[in-house]
Amino acid sequence: MTMHRDAVRRAWDAVADDYAAKRRADGEDAALIEDLLADLPADARVLDVGCGDGQRTLTNLVGAADALGLDFSRRQLELARGAAPDARLVQADMTALPVADGAVDAITAYHAVFHVSRSQHPAVYEEFARVLAPGGRLLMTVGAGRSDATRRNWLDSGHAMYWSTPGRRATVSQLDEAGFDVVWERFVDDPLGSQALFVLAERRP
Ligand SMILES: C[S@@+](CC[C@H](N)C(=O)[O-])C[C@H]1O[C@@H](n2cnc3c(N)ncnc32)[C@H](O)[C@@H]1O
């Protein structure tokens, strides 16, 4: 059942510290950022959507790119400020990015879009396409199966958390409709102990 966006934001404020304690800056999914950066120009502008505490993504982007971290959770942004002091940060919702059209060369969105109701995913991908320059790249985690569920007491935090995804095939179709070509889909180790599906997509010129 859909969990309201404000409730998801409050949940992230509440679980941010526990989640950060379970995350590191390295690992198979973090290494994908090196591949992304290798294909980008020097000083590329990279928007990290749902940056969270910054350990997984921003710390691997700063120094190699002009990184902007975006998250709607104030506590996550406080942790990101500590982890990646040189990154620019903004508090915003990924369904309405405070970024100009065509202003970024790449977007990373790790373990983030599936915390938004799947009914909103097409709007999120349209926003991603809007802010990316033609040929810009999107590297993101995708929910492999269909789900729309709330898990109580996530990470023994006492707070509920929400995941929502239409599944792999529908997501690839939504990306296509938003103007992306999928370059690859790949399962990689997830730092919380399972496997996560990642997609690299390119915005059509
Ligand atoms: C699972 S965490 C992942 C954090 C980070 N990307 C990582 O991989 O470590 C998901 C993040 O997405 C953020 N988020 C969820 N829904 C959002 C929304 N609608 N707009 C902006 N951020 C959102 C949460 O606050 C949280 O920080």
What can you see in these coordinates?
By secondary structure, the protein is of the alpha/beta class. The protein has a single domain (about 5-205), classed as Vaccinia Virus protein VP39 (Rossmann fold), CATH 3.40.50. It has 6 helices and 9 strands. It has a 7-stranded mixed beta sheet with strand order 3-2-1-4-5-9-8, sandwiched between helices. A two-stranded antiparallel ribbon has the order 6-7. Strand 2 (about 65-70), helix 4 and strand 3 (about 90) form a beta-alpha-beta unit. The longest helix has 17 residues, at about 5-20. The protein starts with a helix and ends with a strand. S-adenosylmethionine binds next to helix 1. It holds the Pfam family Methyltransf_25.
